Amino acid sequence: MSMRSRVFLARRAVCPLGRSGSTLAVRSCQGGNQSAMLHLRAIVPCLLLAFPALAQDTRAPEPQYAVACGAQFARSASHVSLVKLYGAKNVTFEGVNRPEGEVVKATVLFAKDPSRRLEIEWYDKKKRRFPSVMTVFGETNKWIGPLGIKNGMTIQEIEQRAGKPFKINGFGFDVAGAGHFSETKLEKLPGGCFFNAHFDIEEGLPPEHLERFVGEVEISSDDPDLLTLKPKLWIYTLTYPPPSAD
What we know:
- The protein has helices spanning about 5-15, 25-30, 35-50, 80-85, 155-160, 225-230; strands at about 90-95, 105-110, 120-125, 130-135, 165-170, 180, 195-200, 220, 230-240.
- By secondary structure, it is an alpha+beta fold.
- It has a 6-stranded antiparallel sheet. A 3-stranded antiparallel sheet has the order 6-5-8, with no helix packed on it.
- The protein is globular.
């Protein structure tokens, strides 16, 4: 439908003409001796009602599930600023589990929803400000990291974003499947934080003929035998250096 037809229909919606087509109706809807400005004022509200897409949406945008070294997660972020953005009911401060049974205090976004859970630890623990580590768990987690990284990606997909092969730890101990991204695009990210990640394989441990992948060893991400195990990203973190560091 042309814009001319839309304007005509909009005018009809505000000022429908009866069969008699009275002089008053004609002057009100078609302009008559009214000024062009009054005519426009009559038409524009009708257009916005008839075609909502033409009206500007003034609602606040929904927070995006993107975590990076900036925006709401910049160095200046705090528990308070996250509460303002995501709402008090979606932001808690609680103990979270870490390797070797350690429990640390962290701000948690969407704590009861594994698909949206994000944990933020702070350098200033008392005032809960200046993020130190931001952690995204779980293969189905919606949070998307730098370069489009998200949990559940294959090791080949992460290698593409890194720009070259990297090393990962062997499996079967506390830091199993941890990636080492030195000299890759993931070594240091825009905004000044560092990317770390852990990979897992579906069976938990490699089969007997690949025992060389078990324990404190390093494996290249492009190792053909490793690729047969189909490792996937299951946790990643973004880590800021201390506030005093350059």
